[in-house]
Design goal:
The structure holds 2 protein chains of 2 kinds. Chain A is α/β, with parallel strands linked by helices. In chain A, 64% of the residues lie in helices and 8% in strands. Chain A has 25 helices and 10 strands. Chain A is elongated. The chains are: A alpha/beta, B alpha/beta.
Chain lengths: 724, 575
């Protein structure tokens, strides 16, 4: 309940700030730090620049809005004072008026008695007392007097006289300060609660609260637009950066890593801008405002409140230090648990096949137990932060109640001052905790921003040359001249490769996995830049052609079938912008995809789900082939294009493609040698270089690597002796 | 959600203690303003300094007591909530491990992973919050109202107006905001989708020169998301100041009506101060309770997903009466087997009958979707047949202990799956007690020795999760070695040479021949070259046996086989 208590006072009075997540939420957790905090922060702030005016408005509104709420307790304290004065004065007046009556009664009785005893009593009383008694008798009845001044006079006299009465039963048990205070109260209020005054204050208060709400609302409203627009342009920047990055960047990173920068990291920035920034502003305004207000009430009580601050810091540091350790341990175990679960679930078939369920469960239990151990400790240690803070807050509350209470009795403070002060001091803790919290949040946000900026700072592809050439009617003659290439500088992959491809030829590339077959495609389409030599199409260096123009000369079908979340029609149409329905169907027919598409319940309108699991791998390949056919390219690249299609369908496709490939230059990469027998040129690659070159017959006759490879598919078991 | 809480049973005592402690803590928090009001009425108003000191000390004790209660409650609730998470995780994981492939197909692997990890963590967090805050909020609200009522009956009427207004405001905004909140997730998913597609398809996007198109898609999703965010945040921007205003007006109202009552002599000064503080506690508790409406539905969704896992019973479990199959070794028989996948219109396999015995190689060939993999998946009882029976060593697989059945089988799946750990560890997966020599031998036969020795730490080379640091062909060879070390009665190779080039494929098969001489071997393949030498080739076409026999026999008798062969070999090779 700890926070409830603390928040409650702050929510009630400070009136601003979204307290999502609660205070101390991030305090116990490890904070990620940016490498270069200052620079990144500066750059992040740069994104806010277009909204300078809005931000100034936010700042002003925050200060003004907060100002109203900060002033409110002091004003309501005034009402409280007035109320207390009237109440107190009324109470004392009633009391004294009662006393006056009863005393007068008594004196009358005594006088009657003394008259009977004659002189006897007279002698016993000293003259001063008699004088006092006489004066009391002459005082006007208190409840008959209307004028507050006069009332105060009477009370004063009555109290003074009362002191002189030694045997007075109802002696006033008050200090001089209290008597002065009461007399003042009586003078001011006449023993009545001044509803006109209180009413005025109420109206002022309502006005203040209303204004404060309006200002806070406006601030948040403006800020929501600023924050989201900022984040919007950040996302946009990253997205327009990505197409400019070379493929090397994407190949060397996991998708998850890049994705997380654009989504999670930017989302964190968005939340911080939206919530934490306004919170920071309001918190600082509150801290300063509260201190000022408290000082105007009582500098010494303010000191008491400030004295509790080190206790906050101490308890926070105490808790944070320990909990960070446990959170880190929890995170580690959680990571291991997720890893194990992922492995066991994805490998479920194997776990079953080898009967390893028991071991899997045992390992899980062990991690689970460790996670439990770390988890409850992390929760507990971070959880005691709230009670501790609440205790410190209550400590301040009690101190103020006591010290303030004592001072009120000494007339050095008024009751309304204490009520206001309690409100201030309790509200005071909230922004302090928040500021500490936000300091952490800002740190991790800057770390997020840094990761985003890292993407923006990545070196881009060499820009297209300004006087790029356009091949109007490409023929598709491709030439590699002394091409050099390596993915890593230390490991040269292709050294001095030269090929000459004539229009309409089919070039097959074969070789074991990792021989560099796909590398060739990467170079041809200029996904990667070559290290030396040059590649030309129709005699033009590909570096002199715009990337877009270059790539639109190619039609590509890859082993890994990429389709997007959309209809089959749209996926095929991706091959060429503005393709007609008829063309799409023709392409699908050519790729032998039309039949299976029509057997699907929604036909061409079937929506492929995110992982495209609603059609088989082979069917996906057919769609990608249809897409390439539709593109109607000059040069075709088929990289294991039919690997998941069964061989009979493959033959059909090949027939279709033979038509397609007739006048086109095509590069075919394949495992199945049957696919490539008819190629004009077969490149046999191993370890990144071409080791044999020629057509099928020539290569077989040569009896080298290719012949070996080719024969092995039939000889099967008998290969042992001839193995290289 | 409630159903999951039954797993909290072991923590019954803990939770009871938490409730009591939170109650005391709430009491302590509520008692402080009461004491404060006493200080005002009896101490300050009467100028009794001793009383003020005495009460101050008492307040300090109460505050300390409340803090101690809170700390113990935190301790117990952390233990209970984390304990619940631990128990749930263990239950879910155990259940999933007992699933057959059918349940995996039905639920999906990725959601099962989320259910075991994220969903349970969510339940755990919400349980913690419920125990730490949600329990005390209603107590605080009710306690506050009771105390306020005791202090002054008539002034409590202010709440009769304030609470419904507050509740109304929260409900109104919740109704307006909830759909937008839900939409936010949808739009966030959308932008993620576009981006992920752009990353996975980067070559295609660039090859087809569709960068502008993709940028437009992203822009659309980006604007959509931004606008939704702005809408949600505007509602939130309205919510807080509105709630503050309601609370502040309430406190002003209390001050005003309280003054009137004091004037009439119905109420004392201190009571008014305490009352104002109670009011704030009540209102704040209301806010907390309203948060429950946001938190609980989210956890509820997670709970439903977890319950679905716990409610799904494995379709395949060991029979009540177990038959042992120790008499024969390596005999496999399919008798009129028909099988269809759940929800499929057509059976994936129909009327399959064949048998195989030790020393024989049976090859299965056929087009995509002809049921090859399905057939071999029935042998280790990954699925149960619809009709007919699969017999291993003369016993129906459904009557055997699953563990005993699978220990007879060496299964190499189409998609090689390796686990994180060393290469040796992965091969040893096939036989836990395998010696280093056995492992080395298995690797050699599987043609994996060469690439293993090229690695810096050889057999101790660490394989990353999912085997991403080695190639597909290497993975396949290791998964073959894993089976070889097992020395099973029946080998099943489910298209497991596909990532190998022809040469390695041929060498591997040659080496395998000696190794598997006494065992029954089943090979699923697409390449004719792989199956040509088999003792028996089964040609599958649309789930039915289109032909069975040796290569020669089939060339003469089976049209489908001939088509397959001619698609791969040229005329002269056919002859």
């Amino acid at each position: 309940m700890s926070e409830a208590r603390r928040d409650n006072t702050s929510m009630g009075r400070q009136g601003g700030g979204l307290h999502r997540g609660g205070p101390g939420g991030a305090l116990g957790r490890p904070v990620e730090k940016a490498k270069d905090f200052k620079k990144t922060l500066k750059r992040l702030l740069g994104y806010l620049k277009p909204y300078k005016v809005n931000l100034i408005v936010v700042l002003i509104f925050a200060i003004v809005g907060m100002g109203f709420t900060i002033a409110a307790p002091k004003i309501s304290g005034k009402a409280m004072n007035k109320l207390a004065d009237g109440y107190k004065a009324g109470m004392v007046l009633n009391q004294i008026s009662e006393q006056q009556k009863s005393m007068q009664q008594q004196i009358k009785l005594q006088m009657q008695k003394s008259q009977q005893l004659k002189g006897n009593a007279q002698a016993q009383q000293n003259p001063e007392t008699i004088k006092a008694i006489q004066e009391i008798m002459t005082l006007p009845q208190l409840d008959k007097v209307e004028d507050p001044q006069q009332k105060a006079e009477i009370v004063k006299k009555f109290i003074d006289l009362g002191k002189k009465m030694p045997d007075s039963q109802q002696k006033m048990n008050m200090s001089q300060e209290q008597i002065d205070d009461i007399l003042r109260a009586i003078k001011e209020t006449g023993g009545k609660i001044d509803f006109t005054f209180i009413g005025h204050i109420m109206i002022v208060l309502l006005g203040f609260y209303l204004l404060s709400s309006v200002f806070t609302f406006t601030m948040q409203f403006v800020m929501s637009t600023v924050a989201q627009r900022t984040v919007y342009s950040m996302r946009k920047d990253v997205d327009s950066k990505l197409p400019k990055l070379p493929l090397k960047y994407f190949d060397s990173r996991t998708h998850g890593e890049i994705l997380s920068r654009v989504t999670n990291d930017i989302d964190t920035i968005s939340t911080t801008l939206q919530q934490s920034l306004t919170q920071l502003i309001t918190s600082i305004v509150q801290i300063v405002g509260y201190i000022i207000m408290m000082l105007t009430i009582s500098p010494i009580l303010t000191l008491i409140v400030l004295a509790t601050l080190p206790l906050y810091i101490f308890s926070t540091v105490f808790v944070a230090k320990r909990s960070q350790k446990y959170f880190a341990a929890q995170q580690k175990e959680l990571g291991q648990l997720s890893g194990h679960v992922e492995e066991m679930y994805t490998g479920h078939k194997i776990v079953k096949a080898f009967g390893h369920e028991k071991e899997s469960i045992e390992k899980f239990s062990a991690i689970n137990d460790r996670l439990h151990e770390a988890g409850w400790k992390a929760q507990f240690v971070s959880g005691i932060m709230f009670p501790l803070m609440n205790f410190v807050s209550n400590l301040g509350y009690v101190l103020i109640s006591v010290v303030g209470g004592l001072w009120v009795t000494k007339n050095r403070l008024q009751i309304g001052d204490i009520t206001a002060f309690i409100q201030y001091s309790r509200s005071f803790t909230m922004p302090i905790v928040q500021t500490a919290n936000i300091a952490n949040i800002i740190q991790s946000t800057v770390a997020c921003a840094e990761r985003v900026f890292e993407v923006l700072d990545e070196p881009e592809e060499i820009p297209d040359s300004p006087n790029a050439k356009v091949i109007e009617y490409p023929k598709g003659e491709v030439k590699f001249e002394n091409v050099k290439f390596s993915y890593k500088e230390s490991e040269p992959l292709i050294e001095d490769m030269s090929i000459d491809v004539k229009q309409g030829h089919t070039i097959a590339i074969v070789g074991p996995t990792g021989a560099g077959k796909t590398t060739l495609v990467n170079l041809l389409m200029r996904f990667y830049e070559i290290g030396g030599g040059k590649i030309t199409i129709d005699g033009v260096d590909i570096r002199d052609i715009k990337r877009g123009d270059l790539r639109s000369m190619f039609g590509m079908v890859l082993q890994d079938t990429w389709l997007f979340n959309g209809t089959i029609r749209d996926n095929i149409a991706y091959g060429r912008e503005g393709a007609t329905e008829e063309e799409i169907i023709r392409a699908a027919k050519a790729a032998h995809a039309d039949h299976f598409i029509r057997t699907l319940p929604d036909g061409y309108n079937t929506i492929l789900n995110e992982e495209a699991t609603n059609i088989s791998q082979g069917q996906k390949q057919l769609l990608t082939i249809a897409r390439a056919i539709l593109a109607d390219p000059t040069i075709l690249i088929l990289d294991e294009a039919t690997s998941s299609v069964d061989t009979r369908t493959e033959v059909l496709i090949q027939k279709a493609m033979a038509n397609l490939m007739k006048d086109r230059t095509s590069f075919v990469i394949a495992h199945r040698l049957s696919t490539i027998r008819d190629a004009e040129l077969i490149l046999v690659m191993n370890h990144g270089s071409i080791i044999e070159m020629g057509n099928h017959k020539e290569l077989l006759a040569k009896g080298g690597f290719y012949a070996d490879l080719y024969n092995s598919q039939f000889t099967g078991a008998n290969l042992e002796s001839s193995a290289v | 959600m409630i159903r999951l809480f039954k797993f909290l049973k072991p923590f019954k005592v803990f939770i009871a203690c938490v409730l009591v402690l939170v109650f005391f803590q709430t009491l302590a928090d509520l008692y402080l303003p009461t004491l404060m009001s006493d200080i005002v009425d009896k101490g300050i108003m009467k100028g009794d300094t001793n009383y003020i000191w005495k009460m101050g000390g008492f307040m300090l004790l109460i505050a300390a007591g409340g803090t101690i209660c809170a700390i113990i409650a935190t301790f117990l609730s952390s233990k209970a909530a984390m304990g619940l998470g631990t128990i749930l995780r263990s239950k879910v994981f155990n259940r999933v491990e007992s699933y057959s492939l059918h349940e995996f197909d039905k639920l999906g692997t990725s959601t099962l992973i989320t259910r075991t990890t994220n969903d349970i963590t969510q339940i755990q967090t919400v349980t913690m919050i419920i125990m730490r805050m949600m329990v005390s909020a209603p107590m605080m609200a009710i306690g506050g109202i009771v105390l306020a009522f005791l202090k002054d009956k008539y002034l409590t009427l202010v709440f009769a107006v304030a609470i419904p207004v507050l509740a109304g405001a929260i409900t109104l905004l919740a109704i307006k905001g909830m759909p937008l909140f839900k939409l936010m997730q949808v739009k966030l998913d959308k932008i993620n989708l576009v981006l992920r597609e752009n990353l996975t398809g980067i070559r295609v996007v660039r090859a087809f020169n569709r960068i502008d198109h993709e940028q437009a898609r992203f822009e659309e999703a980006n604007i959509d998301l931004t606008n939704n965010y702005i809408k949600v945040n505007r509602i939130m921007a309205f919510l807080m100041p509105a709630l503050m205003l309601i609370m502040n007006i309430t406190s002003v109202a209390i001050l005003w009506f309280g003054s009137l009552r004091i004037d009439n002599g119905d109420m004392q000064m201190g009571a008014l101060i305490a009352f104002t503080q109670y009011a704030m506690q009540i209102m704040y508790s209301m806010l907390m309770v309203s948060m429950m409406f946001i938190m609980v539905p989210r956890a509820q969704a997670a709970a439903v997903r977890i319950n679905e896992v716990l409610d799904t019973t494995p379709g395949i479990s060991d029979a009540a009466e177990i038959k042992e199959a120790n008499e024969k070794r390596g005999f496999l028989e399919f008798k009129n087997v028909t099988f269809s996948y759940h929800g499929a219109e057509q059976p994936a396999l129909s009327n399959i009958t064949f048998s195989a015995k030790p020393g024989e190689v049976t090859a299965i060939i056929g087009g995509t979707g002809s049921g090859k993999s399905t057939l071999v998946n029935l042998i280790p009882r990954f699925y149960d047949v619809d009709s007919g029976s699969v017999l291993v060593d003369g016993v129906d697989v459904r009557e055997m202990l699953q563990e005993a059945l699978r220990s007879k089988i060496g299964f190499v799946p189409q998609k090689a799956v390796l686990f994180s750990g060393t290469i040796a560890h992965n091969i040893r997966y096939g036989k836990v007690e395998a010696t280093d020599e056995e492992i080395r031998h298995a690797a050699e036969v599987a043609q994996a020795k060469e690439f293993i020795s090229e690695m810096s730490s050889g057999f101790e080379h660490e394989i990353a999760q999912g085997g991403i640091n080695i190639s597909g062909g290497q993975k396949q060879r290791l998964s073959i070695a894993r089976v070889l070390v097992r020395k099973p009665e029946i080998y099943i190779f489910d298209d497991s040479f596909s990532a190998l080039d022809f040469k390695t494929d041929a060498k591997l098969r040659a080496a395998l021949k000696n190794e598997t001489a006494d065992a029954t071997v089943l090979i699923v393949a697409q390449r004719v070259g792989t199956v040509m030498d088999a003792d028996r080739i089964i040609v599958l076409d649309e789930g039915q046996i289109a032909g069975m026999g040796t290569h020669r026999e089939l060339l003469n008798s089976c049209e489908v086989y001939r088509e397959i062969v001619s698609s791969q070999l040229s005329e002269e090779e056919l002859a």
